[in-house]
Amino acid sequence: MDRFKIEGGRRLEGTVRISGAKNAALPAMAAALLTAEPVRLQNIPHVRDIITMAKLLAHMRCHIESPDLPPSEFTIRAETVSHAEAPYELVKTMRASVLTLGPLVARFGYARVSLPGGCAIGSRPIDLHIQALEKLGAAISIDHGYVEARAKRLRGTTFRFPKITVTGTENILTAAVLAEGETILENAALEPEIPDLAELLTKMGAKIEGAGTPTIRVLGVEKLHGATHVVIPDRIETGTFLVAGAITGGELLLTNCDPRHLGAVIDRLKECGVEIRCEGQRGLRVRAAKRLVAADVTTEEFPGFATDMQAQFMALATQAHGISHIRETIFENRYLHASEMVRMGANITIEGNLAVVTGPTPLTGAPVTASDLRASAGLVLAGLVANNTTWIDRVYHIDRGYERIEDKLRSVGARIERVSDAG
Ligand code: EPZ
Q: Is residue 53 within 8 Å of 59, Cβ to Cβ?
């Protein structure tokens, strides 16, 4: 198992190119199941979850090609799909495997997908995906830990999500595009990954209106065709590097990003005193604050402050003057990084879903354990500003969603290396 060794205290300076968004690439790959023709996806990040999704599609007998290595582009052909099934072995390593449920049942009339089960950050059920598919006319049964969905052809309907769900919206959108008649999805997620998916589906021949607003209208078509699509930049990787510049007293230029997707994060960082400005349409420059001050954050659905940036913001708050209140409203157990930061010297107390961070406190290197993807990112950021050496265990979590984070950080001056057990 790999670990990171970080020698903190280095100011970061330079340019970092942001990768494609994992959470946009995953539903786009699943959407390729909707047609027998090739779907070409560009700006794919080289991260573990994408490899898992490629394995899952290969398991279903899709044909996947990539012109480069490591792949930044895939052409997926779902001409013959003989196994309309997402097995437990793959779903347990990546919950987003459930994104294949909607496209499979819509095109093949049958899908069998393992229930994802619990997760480090919360219980994370998929009951709303199931309810919506039932409303579209699928017969659902749950057997031996698997969801089985059957439908001759899905039928358009109106479904109001009782709670906003990102992958739920994506799953049902990719089912409704092949349903008979009109589907109206109300209280849909607004995250930028949704309009990106709708753009791909529209290129494939789908009829969609309103993606990126709470009401999405889909007029089902009989068949979809191939398309080429460039996946949007990763807004969470962008936010993570904004904090990396800010926490190390540095200055970074982030390229190939989309500042429109980071409004709430940029606003909170500016409130802390961090200087951030757009450089053209695809660039952001971050310059550390002269004096970092505390700010309050509540995680919310887009366009609010993303839960996927909460751990990184907490790392920054440990270095800010004053008391920051962080409220996590999306997942019930997303503070596992806090106790590790406390072991590094942070002053953080947790009361229910509220974390109170009093700063600044000097951090000192310690061996710490990553518990999930974004928690790991928070610990890396804490390690960058800590005295001495920080060892981060279980970095496979970070490999799920960050492309070569240690190389990118090293290229702008960080002292971070990957140490494998063998080495
Ligand atoms: C997506 O997860 C992201 N994953 C997550 O990113 C992200 O944290 C999350 O959205 C919130 O922004 C992908 O896009 C692949 P939800 P998702 O369904 O879709 C509850 C990362 O680090 N809920 O929007 O699974 C749920 O428990 C990951 O990259 C139900 O109750 O999240 C949660 O409290 C982690 N029933 C809330 O809704 C359901 O059927 C929002 O979850 C579905 C969700």
A: no
Smallest Cα–Cα separation from 166: which of 108, 236, 110?
236
Q: How many Å lie between the centroid of ligand 1 and the Cα of residue 166? A: 6
Phi and psi torsions of 19, nearest 5°? -85, 175
Give burial (CB, 10 Å; 0-12/13-18/19+) of 352.
exposed
Q: Is the C-beta atom of 308 inside 6 A of ligand 1?
A: yes
Determine the longest span between alpha carbons in the chain, in angstroms.
63
pLDDT in tens, 78-112: 998 888 999 999 999 999 999 999 999 999 999 99
Atom of ligand 1 lying closest to residue 99 CA: 15
Task: Please state the atom number of ligand 1 nearest to the C-alpha of residue 332.
Answer: 34
Which pLDDT tens digit goes with each residue over 305-353? Answer: 999 999 999 999 999 999 999 999 999 889 999 999 999 999 999 999 9
DSSP secondary structure string for all residues of 302-352: TTSB-GGGHHHHHHHHTTSBEEEEEE--S-TT--HHHHHHHHTT-EEEEET
- C-beta separation of 41 from 68 below 8 A: no
Domains and CATH numbers, the chain: 3-19+233-419 (3.65.10.10), 22-222 (3.65.10.10)
Whether 220 contacts 182, CB under 8 Å: yes
CA of residue 386 to ligand 1 center, whole Å: 31
